[in-house]
Design brief:
The chain folds into two domains: 102 residues, no CATH class; 115 residues, Receptor-associated Protein, CATH 1.20.81.30. Helices cover 87% and strands 0% of the residues. It has eleven helices and no strands. The protein starts with a helix and ends with a helix.
Length: 305
């Protein structure tokens, strides 16, 4: 009985000690929680403002700045000039700068790598060799995605300028023959026409207004485009200014030449139509026609034999 009573007393004492410790720990936990809440409610205004910022400002913007810094380190001085030239040829899309392009390259690499890893290995379950090829291809594609976008925009812009060049040169010729100077005629063309070519002529005028020579402004126009007709027009205007040739005569010759080239390009495209239409005819039309014509006879022959 004494041993049993001693065991009960020992366990009772241990229970009381552990209960007291647990209550104390619980009280300390509650006290710490209250202290944290009081600290958050009484925090400085700057800290509250930092915590109240949206997720994009707290997380996405720092990541974007890090990607931008990494892109700047990866891009050399010659690459910066090439990117700036591509932006000029694309018409400087709104919001697109050199920093945005280099940042887009870095983000494209990360997005291409993550997407290809998830899609190739998790979704499709590819092997190691084929998965590595897919990952490498998507990563390279993500790196060159901004460059491809700028190239496509520049190509579309050149096509629009090519279509409107003949009419713009005609209007320029009429304005010069009516008595206006070349700069005033260029201003009339930029004001009364729309499209990228009018914007380029307006940029030439702005460069001349800030002190740049006419020849230099016209050469800059030729560098911002890949069109041979515009390069030929700029070369003719620069030579006319250098040798003192009447600009109206040069413009008349350039207008006739551009009209001739435009008609030749239309004839060339018309001559390509029969060759291009042959492919869908051979691949899609003729097989269907053969099935319709020979199909019933083939069925009858198969039933006879």
């Amino acid at each position: 009985m004494a041993l049993l009573l001693g065991t009960v007393l020992i366990f009772s004492a241990l229970f009381i000690v552990f209960a007291a410790v647990g209550v104390g720990a619980e009280r300390r936990g509650v006290s710490r929680s209250i202290e944290v809440l009081e600290a958050m409610t009484s925090a400085p205004t700057e800290l509250k403002a930092e915590l109240d910022k949206p997720f994009g400002e707290r997380v996405l913007e720092p990541l974007y700045r890090r990607a931008q810094a990494l892109g700047r380190r990866m891009t050399g001085a010659d690459q910066v000039e090439r990117i700036r030239l591509r932006l000029d040829r694309a018409g400087n899309p709104p919001g697109w700068t050199v920093d945005r392009v280099v940042t887009g390259k870095v983000l494209g690499v990360i997005a291409g790598f993550v997407f290809s890893m998830f899609f190739g290995f998790v979704v499709l379950g590819m092997g190691l060799s084929s998965g590595i090829v897919i990952v490498a291809g998507c990563t390279v594609l993500g790196y060159y995605a901004p460059t491809i976008y700028l190239y496509n925009e520049g190509t579309k812009r050149d096509q629009i300028m090519q279509k409107s060049l003949a009419d713009a040169i005609d209007l320029l010729t009429i304005s010069v023959e009516a008595g206006l100077g070349f700069d005033a005629a260029l201003q009339q063309v930029a004001k009364n026409t729309e499209g990228p070519l009018a914007g380029e002529f307006g940029r030439v005028l702005q460069e001349m207004q800030i002190g740049r020579g006419r020849s230099d402004a016209m050469r800059a126009l030729a560098e911002r485009t890949k069109l041979p007709d515009i390069r030929s027009f700029v070369s003719a205007m620069v030579q006319a200014e250098s040798f003192g040739i009447p600009i109206a005569q040069v413009l008349r010759v350039q207008s006739a030449e551009i009209r001739t080239k435009r008609r030749q390009r239309a004839e060339e495209k018309a001559a390509e139509v029969p060759v291009k239409i042959m492919i869908p005819v051979v691949l899609f039309v003729l097989p269907c026609l053969m099935i319709v014509v020979i199909g019933p006879a083939a069925v009858s022959i198969a039933q006879e034999f």
